[in-house]
Fold:
Amino acid sequence: MEKISFEQLQEELYFEELDNGLKVYILPKKGFNKTFCTFTTNYGSIDNMFVPLNETQYKKVPDGIAHFLEHKLFEKKDRDVFQEFSKNGASANAFTSFTRTAYLFSSTQNVENNLETLIDFVQDPYFSEKTVEKEKGIIGQEITMYDDNPDWRLYFGLIENMYENHPVKIDIAGTVESISHITKDLLYECYDTFYHPSNMLLFIVGPVDPKEYMESIKGNQQKKDYTKKSEIKRKFEEEPQEVHKKKQVLAMNVQTSKCLVGIKALDTEQQGAEMLKNELCINTLLDMIFSNSSENYQHLFSDGLIDDTFSYDYTQEKGFGFAMIGGDTSKPDELADRIQKILLEAKSTAIQGETLERTKKKRIGTFLRAVNSPEYIANQFTRYSFNDMNLFDVVSTIEQITVEDIQAAAERFIDEDRMTVCQVVPKA
Amino acid sequence: MSVAEEKVKKYGGFNLHTVKTEKFKTNNIVVKWKAPITEETATLRALLPHVMQNSSNKYPNTASLRSYLEELYGATFFIDLSKKGDYQIISFSLEIANEKFLSDPDPLLKKGVDFLAEILFNPHADGKSFAEKIVEDEKRALKQRIQSIYDDKMRYANFRLVEEMFKGEPYALGVNGIAEKVDAISAEGLYQYYEKSLKEDQIDVFVVGDIDEEEIASYISTKLPFEERTAAAHTRAVHKEVKEKEVKEKEVKEVQDVKQGKLHIGYRTNVLYGDEDYFALQIFNGIYGGFSHSKLFLNVREKESLAYYAASRIESHKGLLMVLSGIDQQNYEKAVSIIKEQLELMKKGDFTEDEIMQTKAVTHNQMLETLDTARGMIEVFYHNAVSGVDVDMSQWLQSISKVTKEEIQTVANKIELDTIYFLSGSEGNN
Structure:
């Protein structure tokens, strides 16, 4: 077991890669009541074309299957996993993102039992035709719920505008139609391909003894028979650099319009330190342009174009990435124009060193606040790790960002051909 | 196991609550202003903190104020409004890095207190009126905020259910006030309301973090000079009236262009925070619809696959139990009958010792987890301040563990169905 210390943060992280390839991280948190664990596979909604285990040809699977699989893992032949957790005072949950599926629990007692339940239920699938059919009703309602949600529709509308071929444009849960094609055999095929321990990461954060926990996890894994596995082959179609559509307007049952401007990312092949720096630079750049301490924000607000729902974010993964800027507005066209104009102006405006230093301070403070949260640490650490980055390098990377870095990021990232607009407006 | 301990001390016009803990890398200060929600004041009260939060005399615009917060290592400062029972509560929250995790030894917490003092006692005003333009900008934003409830159907259905259940009572008012009343507010009128609130609201100040409790207490007591309150302290009497209200089963159906129907059912629990059977109500709610092992989750979702979510929750200061579920409109009758039937089973005592044990374990866990966040701690402790009772955390946990099956059944039998609200895509149940 390896021990990594982060002195400024006063944290220690323990790590070991087990014989079957499972990566285990333990971060002791003194003073906390709860322990939070995530067990995550590097498999999400975008992984819809791959070579199934022990086969040779690429295969395309129905939209929404990773999320469907996440739901179905909770059901077993003879028991209900939720019941098992709650008997031990734990609350369990799971989520599927574009690139990951995570299973998790938190509890303040019987933590070792709960951890075992977590590992065992994820590693022991049971799918039957009957339970698969039943789940279609439940997930159908989940999809319908999101269909009525204007913010969700706006978000996916913007991604659809950006991407022509990449499966990131497909809703994580799929559609009622696409999930109707899911069968138990397809679920097993996805499971066998992506749930091998070597494609997974276990993260534990809480008031625990790392040695004891590592031993018990090893004991658990040694009882299970995992053969060595070849690398997973995924395929993605070619994606052009420019956006697929410049604008999309969705008429919905709302009273207030919404508007988002997106920028499609470049350099999405990056991993590791390079990716970390790029992601932090672009987020810092957006802060400098749009944060509520900026002149731009103040003008947009006093001109009546935005309210406190205004936000912005940049995120990057292997193969895709985007910035999104916007919020509720009574003037969606004017806001779209102004945001795009501000972005293009920022490209040619000199970066102020003083503003950068202040923004860096803010991002460091924000990171300190975030690491109060066991959920944030476990989820983000896993995401970073799947992209060969280290969450705990964030502060030192921010400290090293220079005016030149931000200038370069602005010049490379901001480009009219990669900008797009999505709006939700009231139905006429 | 460490359970959070709070120290409470009265200083002039406010109570200071401090919690010393080494859990966090930041310190939190929250100032809460409490007053009854009324038709006349709800909208003023909803606007006031928004006007106060983005400027002051020292920081006359958003950019200068927010830049200063960034200098303080990105201290977050925000306001929010909430309703607890018949009170409308304004919270001013500041979270600031603990300098011991930074290479820079600037005393951030004291600067944070100074900043809050500036916001609360030195607003952007001339002694008679807030700055006109700022008030107008915030009035526009408030109208948009009130309107936006309509666009989030789950929130909308909640709001409508409460509106129907408490027609003519202050509790029916939304926390953001009334859209039609926004235009009439003037910068002067708002300032007068500010002065009144500053004098009369019940004020609670919370500080959570790795602090020197005495030192910070003496600092805050000089920096936040709230005057001694003269208005009579609001008592639980406001709540008690509710208990005598007649309950009739009402059905309200509303049609909008939506794909998923929103079924929200309101019950009166006749039990409030601080009552003896409040703990039994907590366990009741857990078994009935509070968790993913609950009767509603199992029967509405897992067994019948009618819904993705089917849950219940309680409003501790109003004696309200709400069931919510998103369903296809054709399943309305079926869902309502399952939800009713499950309550009947609870009333008859048709639940096992295992279910009780399980629910106690999860409830216990949930409380301890809440105490792992500073904001969670503050909200838990604020329940006491709102209701004027004093339940400490070990007492709370102990009381939960002692709840018996009979008590749960008794509490179930106090629960009365009040209103069934259904928002759906078209008329009828076709």
Chain A has two domains: 2-222, 247-426. The mean pLDDT of chain A is 96. Residues 260 and 326 of chain A are 4 Å apart (CA to CA).
